[in-house]
Structures are given as structure tokens and as C-alpha cells.
């Protein structure tokens, strides 16, 4: 008779294979599928999703989980069992009816939002969002009861296991102390250094060549992945075949270039997850926040550094055509420009946390029933004014209606962007200590020591450790926003 | 309580959704996937294939099939039930161990063949092929016992339900009477009309534009499908999202052009299958032979006709550059050139049936244990000499090792190519009767009446009728090779 643990690994291998098909069909939907395929694809993916839920929440799985806890397991197996338990609990906890209703209501809200946002129709959107919030609160309540925590903590835990609102309040609270004044000082400083913007058109073919060259430089394994185009850039596929995307704008090439660096960070994490445990939960990426720390390590710590931009410049000039705006100092200034604006996805790394803190405070209060949907616009205006000094009165489109995340009830996701940025800064600080030559290495294109360090400290571990253990092992301490502050001050002051 | 028939439709809808994911992941594997993704993809697809087999051969399905036979059903439902029964019987009949062994042995033989063919290594290939034949005979024996027919008939039935070796012997026997002499006459005639071959390079971008223009002309619905590149052209995907492929050769554009027309014929059949029964077996294409009749209708009856080639020529000149070889008479002669050769896939429509008859006679005798694998080379040489006057002694690579079909045991498939060609000629004959203006219509690009006729007579029926009923309804009689002969004589003499 095989052990309960062996039965579990077989079940999770099977789930992983079905997850593979779901990931590839999902990637295809975003990159290749003609519009007419949409409804059949939706039905096929939903059918597979129901099946995966059934397999995962089967009674036998619950029994095996209990039995396996008493079996002799090594460290990795025990970590795998912990992640299996987590996956089972998360899935088994919600009644099927709630899952289905949330999925329907979320899809309806998102679909309508695609029209309502350009129409600035807050009233129409609010009506749908109230339904989403109602169901998300119900979900959070069930999860909170099971976990013995607050509602919002229960949702946070889906994206960053172990993270709590208390810890966020303290971390983000510290950021709020120094971020607005730091931002003001940087903006003031940069106002004395005007930047010239290169004028297009920039051929899409050249931008593609630049993207591919960057991916190669960043050690992306083209034998196990590819780059395509989609409306919203993402990193998908499976560790054996990672699919990243970007979008091209003929008038401006820097967004696509930085987008490719960002997604390549996600991709290299996926491509270097532990192959010896492939198919098991312990082989998966640690969390949404750690995933984002890798993309932001690549994009912000590495990609926007003076040394990396200098390294890149000759290739940029060759592909985009030499011109005065690509003179080195100007090219670096272009990529390090700080300019508070209304839109999160366009934000520089200094003002980005303000966008996140604002959303975190609103969504936490919303889930905890401290505020209602109707309170959002006023809160948004107040917080934008306080954090970034911008007026958004009446501009819902570029205000509280700008993001897709709330439309399908992904509450708890936003904080991972800034957690990722802080982890990235903390990790790069440790890289600098481990590799004293790192700045000249980057300038010379010798990036392998950095990849080796990430492989050693992050990638190879998958989900073996908790985030806190992983970060402590890698950097000697738990999350500490000091490194992020130092990074911003060093780069921008 | 829902009826047994309703339970069956739900089960087959579910199977169809999983089939959708399998089709898209399979297409991706051939067109997009980097090599490193291969083994994970193989495992994922195999897992889904096991699941589909389990769902289809569940005991409940057998019970519902029996019960539904006594329920009140309309004509379409009864046809659907017939196709469900067929799918169930085909799947349930084979022991899982045989299916698995055949799949393993076939994969091994095919894999080795990719090296053995270029090395002309008949001995190495024969050793593997013997294993494949052994298992195919075992499969055929089980199917024959269940169907009460001969072994080879049981395999034929997988690709063209209702077709028998007796009927093939009679039909192909008739072809053998007149084909060699007709071929000789045509070759002799064409030897007096030398053809000038256009010299490349032809930009792949121009060939792509030509392919897309052709697909548009042929009513391919780009809202429900796309054209990509693969090593071996195919038509895949699902009726809601049909994926066709081609391959480009910079030195020669006619193969890709005709390949696109061929696959578009397959695609238009798929895109126009009955949507009101989508997800049910009755909504699927009738058979492999009928599918090929649609691609050959497009490629041979329509695409290589003088009228269609004239219609096409201005666009070809624009995209490929005007040159003497694209003078109208030469362009038509190029596309209607008849030249017996060793390779089936390169064969013109006059010598193609010889390649098929040869393979049919050998594979039938092989499955019926009248010959053994070691007898194949000699038989191949004799039949190539008799049918096409070509010597293949010692040339296994371009002889009996040229096709992939036998490597994984797809015995019974080859005849559908020539059945398809004959059905296509018979259908076009009926089109000419129904649309007396059809030749001038084609020359003027007015193809809609032809598509309407195919829609009315073939596409909309899916698998509602048997092949024989379908062809009799469309043309007034069962398969009759006379129309194929008339077509060849009209075009080439
Ligand atoms: Zn990211
Ligand atoms: Zn075909």
C-alpha cells in the first residue's frame, strides 16, 4: 500500500498537469485566440477549473493530509505537505455556490467596467461593485473564521501567506512618514534637469529585437519560453515553458523595453524553480509578493540603474537610431524620471507606493465594513491630495475606476506590488554586500554573479520556506523598508 | 429525473470541452512551443487523454446508451445517439494495456524513424515496425470480432465508417484499369509543352499576404480561426476557432499557396459545422474521407482549375513580382503539371491515387497477415514499377519509409486520400449541374454560390447522415469513380 503522502504527490502531479493545460489555453486566449473563440474557450476553461476543484477537494485528499502528517517525511516533503494543506484548505473552505456566484458577478462587473471606465460612469460601476464587495466580504468572513484572523488578513494571506494588516500598517505607516517629502525633494531636484523625449516612430520590429536582446542578456532561456504580444503584459505558461508578453507603441519604446525587463524577472524566477520537485506545490513560486520582488529586482534595481542603462545604450542606439535624446545622461534621466501622476501603472518607483498605500487603506476598510462603496470617491480624492498632491475630483476614470483588480474581487492583491518593491531593494542590498564589484560588473555586462545569487537565495527554493524564512535566510532579517528608502535616496537625491 | 439521453449530452459536452483544450494545446505544441516544453506538454496531454477515456467508457455511459435507445428521440437526436454509441464502442473495446502499449511502441517507432529515414536504415525501421504491426493486428482483431467484419475493415471503419475492403477493391480496381494509361497519355502530352519555373527568392511576408488573401477569397472566417507556420501543415483547433498552418519555402511559393487552399478547405468545413448541436458528436465532421473531400474540392477542383488560377494571377503578380513565368498560360501549366515521382506528398492529382492504391494493398495484406513486414520492400518495388513505372530498389528513404502513418499504426488511413479525391470530383460534378454558370462565376471571383452549395449539401449536416446517405443526398448516387476519371480527362487531355 502506498503512503498517504505518495497518494498526495500523485494527485498534485495530476492537478499540475491540468494546470499546465489551463495555463497554455489561458495564454493562447490573451495572445492568439480570435474573438469568435471566446465563448467556447471560456466554457472549456471553466470545465477544467471545476474538475481541478473536485480533484483537490476530494474527501480522500483530506484523509491523506491527516494521515501524511503522521508519516516520516524529510524537510522538503514536510514543506510540500504544508503547501498541499494550504491549497486544500483554501479550496475546500468555500461553498461551491459562493465560488460560482463570485465568478459570475465578478465577470459581469469586469465586463461592464470596460465600457463604464471610458464613460466615467461611477454610478453604473458602483452598483456592480457593491455586489462584488458583498461576496468578497462573505468569502473573507469564511476564510477569517477558518484562519482565526480578521477578514482582510484572510484575503492578504491568499497572495502573501503570513502577511497581516498590522504588519502592513506599520510598514506602510513608516513609508508615509518619509515618502511625500522625499518625493517633493526629488521632483524639485529633477525640475532643474530638463529631459528630452525621443520622438518616434520606432519600428515594432526594432522594439522586438531590443526585447529579445534584453531577454538574452538577462539569461531568459528561449528553449523554455517565448515573448509575444498582448493587450496587457503578463508572465504566464508553466516553469518548463514560460510565456511572457509585452505591447508595442510605435511612438515610444521605453515602456515596452522596461516591460520586457520586468516580465523577464518574473520569467527567470519561473524558469529556475526547483525542477527536482516539478509538479508539486513546493516547487511553485513562493508568493505574489516574492514574484513581484523578482520582476522589480530586474526592472528597478537592475534595469533602471545607471550602470545597466549605460550597458544597454549602444544596442538601443543601433536599433532605434542614434539621436541627441539618446545621449547617455539624457537616456539615464529619461529612465529615472519621477513625476507624480494619476495612473498607477504609469507611475515611477518613487510615487508608486503612494498609489498602493491609498488602495490598501481603502480596500482594507471596505472588506472590514468600515466604509461602503459609496465612500470610495471621496476617500480617493483626499488620499491622492495628501499623498501625491493631485486633484481627482469627478475624474473616476483616472481615479478609483482605473484598475481591474477590484472588478473581480481581487482584494488583498495591491499590497504585493509595494512589498515586492521593498523585498527587491532589500535583496539587492544583500547582493551588493555579497558582490562588492556588482556595479562595475553590471556596467560590463557580467550579470551571471547576480543570477547565481538569486538562484542560490530565492529561485531554487520554490515554496520550501515561508516568505519570512526565505527573506531572513537571504538577507539576515525580516522585511525592512529601510532598504527601499536607501535605494530611492541613493538613486534620486 | 433527467433522461438518459440528456445525461449523455451533458457527458459529451464535457468531453468536447476537454477535447477543445487538447486541440489548442496540441496546436500550440506544433506551432508555438519551444523544445524544452515538450516533455511537460506530453505528460499534460496524456493525463487529459486518460481522463477523457475514463469519462467516455464509464459504466454509466453504457447504461445510458442502452436506456436512450428506448427513449423518444427526433432524427437528429437519434443520429447523435448513433455517433455516441460509436465513440463509446470504439473506446471501450480495447483493453487499457493494449492502448498504452500501442501508444508507447508507436511513439518509439516514430521517434526512431525520424533518424532512420534519412539514414535509409530499413533494417532498423523494420524491427520497430514489426512491433507496431503486431499490436495493430491485435487491435484490429478485437475490433473485427466486435464488428463482425475482417480485421482491415475494422480499421478502415475508424476513418470512414461503413467503408470496406471489398468496396475499395472494386473502386480502386476500376482506377487501376485506366489510371496508368491515362497517366502515360498526359505525361506524353505535357512533354510537348515545356513549363518555365519561377525563380525565387519569394519573400515569406509576400507569401503570407498571398495566403491570407486566398483565405479571405475562400470565405475563411478570421473571427474564428487563424493561419500559422508548422513543419507539417495541418488543420487543427475547434470549429469555433480553427487553426490552419502552412510552411514557407523562399525558393518556391506554389506549394505554400496550394497548401493554404487545401487547409482552408478543411477549415471551412469545420467553421460551418452545425452550431446548434455544438459539443455533440452529431455536430462533428462526418469522416476523414469527407474531410479530405472538402480540402481537395478547394485545392484540386477549385484551386487548380484554369478559371481559379486566372482569377488569382493578378494578385500573385502583385505580390511575387511580374515575370515571364507568371504569364497566364505558363502559370496554369505550372499548377497543372503532371509528373510521376517517388514521393506521395509531392504527387500531382493524376499520379496520387497510384501512391494510395500501392499503400492500401500492402497495408491490407499486412493487417490480414497475408504478408509480413519483411515483404514490404519487394512489394513496394513491384507496385511502383507497375503503377508509375519507377524503380525504387534499395531506396527505402523515398520508398516504403517515406510516410509517418505506419510508424504509429494508423493503418486504414491512406485510402481516405483517394476516397476524398473521388468524392470531391463527384461533388463538383453536382455543383456544375446545380450552377451552370459556375466556370464563369469562378473566373469572376463569385464563389459564394459554391460555398452555399457545400453548406447546404455537406457542411451543415455534420455527422447527421452516414457518408453514403450524405453523398447520395448531395449527388444522387453512392461513390462513383467515374466522376474522378472525367475530371482528370477534362482537365489534362
Ligand atoms: Zn509584475
Ligand atoms: Zn488534407
UniProtKB/TrEMBL annotation, chains A, B:
Tell me yes or no: is Cell wall biogenesis/degradation among this UniProt entry's keywords.
no
Alphabetical list of CDD domains matching this protein: M32_Taq (cd06460)
GO MF annotation, one: carboxypeptidase activity
Q: Which PROSITE patterns match?
A: PEPTIDASE_M32
Give one Pfam family. Answer: Peptidase_M32
Query: Which domain of life does the UniProt lineage start with?
Result: Bacteria
- Catalytic activity, EC: 3.4.17.19
Any idea which UniProt keywords this protein has? Answer: Carboxypeptidase, Hydrolase, Metal-binding, Metalloprotease, Protease
Which EC class does it fall in?
hydrolase
The record's catalysed reaction(s) read: Release of a C-terminal amino acid with broad specificity, except for -Pro
Write out the function statement from the record.
Broad specificity carboxypetidase that releases amino acids sequentially from the C-terminus, including neutral, aromatic, polar and basic residues.
Q: Which family does it belong to?
A: Belongs to the peptidase M32 family.
Can you say what this protein is called?
Metal-dependent carboxypeptidase
- The organism encoding this protein is Erwinia aeris
